[in-house]
Amino acid sequence: MGLATFDLAAFEASEGAERQRIAAELDQMCRETGFLVLTGHGVPAQVVSGMWAAVHDFFTLDAADKAKVAPPEPGAPYGWIGPLKEALAASKGVKTPPDLKESFNGGPLRVPQNAGAQARAFCYRATPYPDLAGFQAAWDQYYVAMEDLAARVMRSFAAALELPEDAFDAAVTEPISALRALNYPATGDVPEADQQRAGAHTDYGTLTILLPQAGRGGLQVQQAGAWIDVTAPEGAFVINIGDLMARWTADRWVSTLHRVVAVPHQPARKSLAYFHQPGWDVEIAPLDGSNAYPPVRSGPYLMEKFQSTGT
What we know:
Elements: E1 5-7, H1 8-13, H2 16-32, E2 35-39, H3 45-59, H4 63-66, E3 79-81, E4 102-106, H5 117-121, H6 135-160, E5 178-184, E6 198-201, E7 207-212, E8 219-223, E9 226-229, E10 237-241, H7 243-248, E11 258-260, E12 269-276, E13 283-284, E14 296-297, H8 298-306
Parallel strand pairs: 1-2
Antiparallel strand pairs: 2-10, 3-4, 4-5, 5-12, 6-11, 7-10, 7-12, 8-9, 8-11, 13-14
């Protein structure tokens, strides 16, 4: 599937009518599919390559070493989540076998002084970094780059929604975003019925910045009831709208069902996903003033969604 491309650098360099034109095109992308290819992002290549190297080193550890940084109890969000521990389709109320993947997950790099007890117990937990040379430095550098990029994308989103470009700034000053490195092991024969590498789901937050491993397919989005393969050129990110942004825009923008499909004899595949989420106490209510959705608080909404996917 050829996703539409949004050049963030071109938007940021534009003015007047040209800026409005580019913003309107972005609005259309978010209305039609909720997925787009992001170029002109400005993330340094060495930040990306350093992250890939760190993630490769982690996933080549044996299970006993990875288990040293597993979440301390069920429902805790950060650390190594091993194979067959999640079923993402459960977040949509669909029961499937566990997903064929493992992941390492980390959260915000700083804790606001006014963070409450519930926020500290969930999204502001410390990330349990593995004892690997250079891992934490590479991870944190990539997280900072994604946090900055997400803030810039949110400004372009404000323009696309014909709002002042700083309309979302206050909401995302202290985001509770999570970064996830995913490893999908090579597949053998046909998996269990309805088992996928990542079950069909929508993302929970405002937007996801996804970096798939170059040359490895498997990501699919649902369009008109059919599953369509998604590809992106090397060096570009894939952005998709999450459920919270759909609520915020009263479904003007779509949070699209997607999955990572499992078929026999696939090679291993990795990806990096940054899940952008407004601050814990930010109230999300439809921007158009309608009652299309009741207001929700960003943090508790995220926690409930996350905890629905464990097995």
